[in-house]
């Protein structure tokens, strides 16, 4: 069985900007291990020389003319849902120590 | 119960056009029904009574001018994944509990322009991740056929709304089966068109290479009518297809005599319940009666589809859901440190399944694992796609079960994520290959629960898919007595 340990779970959680308590980590360690174990099945298949399919039926990026579109009041509208605002900016906790 | 509730969309269309009923009257009937059954079903997160009222009045004015269009004046519900201007859009999550979008997505714009009457936003699995609708922050949805059972997911609220006679059509999304599986669990028709057929602008992203809008109705003709309205190219979604949109509802009538329908042998060997297998046997007979020939085909890589999906979908989700950080909208849990603010916001804003998938995706994409997981999965995806291409050299349509079982009980699979994932084993390959699929009711099992049969089409051949489904439905002649729900006590939460 594919083993994923507590340290690995904590490392991934940090990357994903998530936090868990001890009980959650224990459950997650077990569940992720069993899912990864199931996924291991893919190694049975030889994929040498097979191209990956990232998207189906999308052949090229459509282009358009670079035309200016006016969006009146967009700035205020964008800030409307923000949890914290300072003047016309999104406000976050201090970043520079 | 008012008899008008049991009618299909196209029957109501006629009554509206003949002015035998008005759109505001129809809305009133639906709202009364919602009031009675919602305490039992929990299919709606938000009811938009006032907006619907204004839209119904507006639609009626257009009907009075003898205008007609498939959705004009018809009560419709939308999965709460479609962003709607000035109407709360939660995606079934605490993190968006109070989020009020500033704009409408393309499909919503089209529905409004077509005169649809939006009565509410449907409950769903959080961020469309789930197969039972038990992952919603707003509580589980109940199956109208048995309130102790799940409606399927993730568009469980949409399916329960249509089967519970709260509306005539609901729009959902399907990333791995999220429209077809709940449709089959609730005995309604659920269409997932080809990837790119319908614009996804203004739909909250889950797995961008798989997500597609779906339609849930009580019959195939209704589905075709709605697809005509919402399909088509959209410059705001670069993955939408420029192919023209055929008048699907006018292409249903010609028969399917001589069509070859392929039944993949692998579809019958993956732990399918006996009653579901009987449903497939019945479907074969019906198709033969309709003049089609059912032949065996093979999808040899089917057993790997769930593995591929549970690498690709969580990987893309982990990236798409990075935007929920408590900065620009949605929940924020305050902290004096920025990173800690992100972590606390996300820890408290997301539910267990969403976090599990973000973790899985982050792991698969993290340094050193990308080739072994994500790239490997995308290569096997190519093999799955080629299996379908090969099968379609011999047949016009592919058929099979929608899910290995009928609706299961609430709580039955919540402790084992893998068992839950396997509920989508027959729908996932269709998303991986980008094809169109539809679930149509074939009959009921011994417990009285609906069984669905799935049809799959070649890319962008929704015309053929709907035509096959239509003749299947007509020949099958299943008469569905929709559950009344009005005399049962409310479910215990």
Alpha-beta classification of chain A: mainly alpha
Q: Number of helical runs of chain B?
A: 15
- Helix-strand sequence of chain A: HHHEE
Could you give me the name of the CATH homologous superfamily of the largest domain in chain B?
Amidase signature (AS) domain
Distance between the termini of chain A: 44 Å
Beta-strand percentage of chain B? 5-15%
What CATH architecture of one domain in chain A do you see? Orthogonal Bundle
Count of strand segments of chain A = 2
The main β sheet of chain A shows up as: 2 strands, antiparallel
Put simply, the count of helices of chain A is 3
Spatial arrangement of strands, main beta sheet of chain B: 1-3-2-4-6-5-10-11-9-7-8
How is the CATH topology of the largest domain in chain B named? Amidase signature (AS) enzymes
Largest sheet of chain B: 11 strands, mixed
Q: Mind explaining what this structure looks like?
A:
Chain A has 97 residues and is mainly alpha-helical. Chain A has a domain of 39 residues: Histone, subunit A (Orthogonal Bundle). Helices cover 35% and strands 4% of the residues of chain A. A two-stranded antiparallel ribbon of chain A has the order 1-2. The radius of gyration of chain A is 23 Å and the shape is flat. With 493 residues, chain B is of the alpha/beta class. Chain B is built from 15 helices and eleven strands. Chain B is globular. Chains A and B meet through helix 1 and helix 2 of A and helix 9, helix 10, helix 11, helix 12 and helix 13 of B.
């Amino acid at each position: 069985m594919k083993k994923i340990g507590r340290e690995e779970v904590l490392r991934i959680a940090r990357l994903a900007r998530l936090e868990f308590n001890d009980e959650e980590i224990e459950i997650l360690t077990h569940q992720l291990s069993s899912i990864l174990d199931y996924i291991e099945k893919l190694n049975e298949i030889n994929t040498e020389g097979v191209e990956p399919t990232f998207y189906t039926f999308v052949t090229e990026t459509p282009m358009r003319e670079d035309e200016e579109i006016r969006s009146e009041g967009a700035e205020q509208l964008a800030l409307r849902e923000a949890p914290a605002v300072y003047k016309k900016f999104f406000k976050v906790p201090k970043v520079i120590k | 119960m008012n008899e008008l509730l049991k009618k299909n969309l196209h029957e109501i269309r006629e009554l509206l056009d003949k002015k035998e009923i008005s759109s505001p009257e129809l809305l009133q009937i639906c709202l009364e029904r919602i009031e009675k059954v919602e305490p039992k079903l929990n299919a709606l997160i938000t009811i938009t009574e006032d907006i619907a009222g204004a839209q119904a009045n507006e639609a009626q004015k257009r009907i009075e001018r003898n205008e007609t269009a498939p959705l004009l004046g018809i009560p419709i519900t939308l999965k709460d994944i479609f962003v709607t201007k000035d109407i709360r859009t939660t995606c079934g999550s605490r993190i968006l509990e109070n989020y009020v979008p500033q704009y409408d997505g393309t499909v919503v714009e089209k529905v409004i322009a077509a005169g649809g009457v939006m009565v509410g936003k449907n409950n769903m699995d959080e961020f469309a991740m789930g197969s039972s609708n038990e992952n919603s922050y707003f509580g589980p949805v109940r199956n109208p056929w048995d309130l102790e059972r799940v409606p399927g997911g993730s568009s469980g609220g949409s399916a329960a709304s249509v089967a519970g006679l709260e509306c005539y059509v609901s729009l959902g999304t399907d990333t791995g089966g999220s429209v077809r599986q709940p449709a089959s669990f609730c005995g309604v028709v659920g269409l997932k068109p080809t990837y790119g057929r319908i614009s996804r602008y203004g739909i909250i992203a889950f797995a961008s290479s798989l997500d597609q809008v779906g339609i849930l109705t009580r019959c195939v003709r209704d589905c075709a009518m709605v697809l005509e309205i919402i399909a088509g190219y959209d410059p705001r979604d670069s993955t939408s297809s420029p192919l023209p949109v055929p008048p699907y509802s006018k292409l249903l009538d010609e028969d399917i005599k001589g069509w070859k329908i392929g039944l993949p042998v692998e579809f019958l060997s993956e732990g399918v319940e006996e009653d579901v297998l009987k449903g497939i046997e019945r479907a074969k007979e019906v198709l033969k009666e309709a003049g089609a020939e059912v032949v065996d085909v093979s999808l040899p890589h089917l057993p790997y589809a769930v593995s591929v999906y549970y690498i690709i979908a969580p990987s893309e989700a982990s990236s798409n859901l990075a935007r929920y950080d408590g900065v620009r909208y949605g929940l924020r849990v305050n902290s004096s440190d920025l990173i800690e603010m992100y972590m606390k916001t996300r820890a408290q804003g997301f539910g267990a399944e969403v976090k599990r998938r973000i973790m899985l995706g982050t792991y698969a994409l993290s340094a050193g694992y990308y080739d072994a997981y994500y790239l490997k999965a995308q290569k096997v995806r190519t093999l799955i796609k080629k299996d379908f291409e090969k099968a379609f050299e011999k047949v016009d349509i592919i058929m099979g079960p929608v899910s290995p079982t009928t609706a299961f009980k609430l709580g039955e699979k919540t402790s084992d994520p893998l068992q839950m994932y396997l509920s989508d084993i027959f729908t996932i390959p269709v998303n991986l290959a980008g094809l169109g699929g539809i679930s149509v009711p074939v009959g009921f099992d011994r417990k009285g629960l609906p069984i669905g049969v799935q049809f799959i089409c070649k890319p962008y051949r929704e015309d053929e898919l709907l035509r096959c489904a239509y003749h299947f439905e007509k020949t099958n002649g299943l008469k569905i007595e929709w559950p009344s729900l009005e005399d049962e006590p409310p479910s215990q939460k």
